[in-house]
Amino acid sequence: MNVLETKNVNYRYPDGTPALEDVNFSAAQGKMVALLGPNGAGKSTLFLHFNGILRPSAGTVMVENVPLTYDKKSIMKVRQKVGIVFQNPDDQLFAPTVEEDVAFGPLNVGLDQDEVERRVAESLERVGMAGFEKKPPHHLSGGQKKRVAIAGILAMSPEIMVLDEPTSGLDPKGASRILHLLHKLNQEGMTIVISTHDVDLVPLYASQVYIISEGHIIKEGTPQDVFSDE
Ligand code: ADP
Ligand code: ADP
């Protein structure tokens, strides 16, 4: 089953910039899917459609086979299913401390204090950031910020986790740790979608790859399909 799908999605920014054209993308349940493409190709724009932050100019976005509707209540629900980790953690981390940041989502959906605390502890442990609870996020390194941003999404227990350039700006060790974590989450059953412009790392883990260029999907298939010289 496809848990995430776009059908002929077109998007044009309000200033007229065309960013996506007839994009058909899907992620099957429990898979890890990679979206590759150069800067400006439309990766972030596509991802912002997955939980209704952007609304297509034309076409349809479907989560668990249900077309998104854009009323407040449906969007709240979709955001619990589809968690997006932004490319720049500074867009996501704004609370005074790491633990408050990670707690924000779970509190926002009305979970009780004990459950929130449990999820915060578990998520920070998962990403290797236990012990940083009281630190202000802006004192952390780039890699640590990314891990806290991931923890904030994990704490929501989404069914689908979407990460925009999760390894960008990290050293090779940091990047491989993040990928290792994503691989593990995927093996536990979470559907993972990531974007990258680094062709080397990600295809090792992804079972399905899409290549986007200038707003068009130009190739899709298994890593072997996509990277073989036909
Ligand atoms: P990528 O994530 O692959 O780097 P983006 O989705 O950010 O690509 O950008 C796709 C296209 O949309 C680019 O031409 C970019 O300049 C344009 N774009 C991105 N954000 C905006 C915006 N807020 N307003 C207008 N154009 C934008
Ligand atoms: P060093 O940087 O000295 O080699 P380690 O490799 O032992 O230290 O790890 C440094 C920290 O990174 C540890 O606290 C480890 O738990 C943590 N870590 C664990 N999982 C991850 C992860 N998925 N991403 C990044 N760091 C992680």
What is the beta-strand fraction?
25-35%
Structural class: alpha/beta
The unique ligands bound to this protein are: adenosine-5'-diphosphate
Uncertain residue ranges: none
Q: Based on CA inertia axes, which overall geometry fits?
A: globular
| Helix-strand topology string | EEEHEEHEHHHEHEEEH
How would you write the strand order of the largest sheet? Answer: 6-7-8-3-9-10
Proportion of helical residues: 25-40%
Mean pLDDT: 94
* Strand segment tally: 10
Radius of gyration: 17 Å
For the termini, the CA-CA separation is 29 Å
Outline the biggest β-sheet. 6 strands, mixed
- Annotation field: number of helices: 7
Structural account:
This protein has 230 residues and is α/β, with parallel strands linked by helices. It contains 7 helices and 10 strands. The chain has helices at 43-50, 72-81, 98-108, 113-126, 142-154, 172-187, 223-227, and strands at residues 2-12, 18-28, 32-36, 58-63, 66-67, 82-85, 160-164, 191-196, 208-213, 216-221. The two termini are 29 Å apart. The mean pLDDT is 94. Bound molecules: adenosine-5'-diphosphate (2 copies).
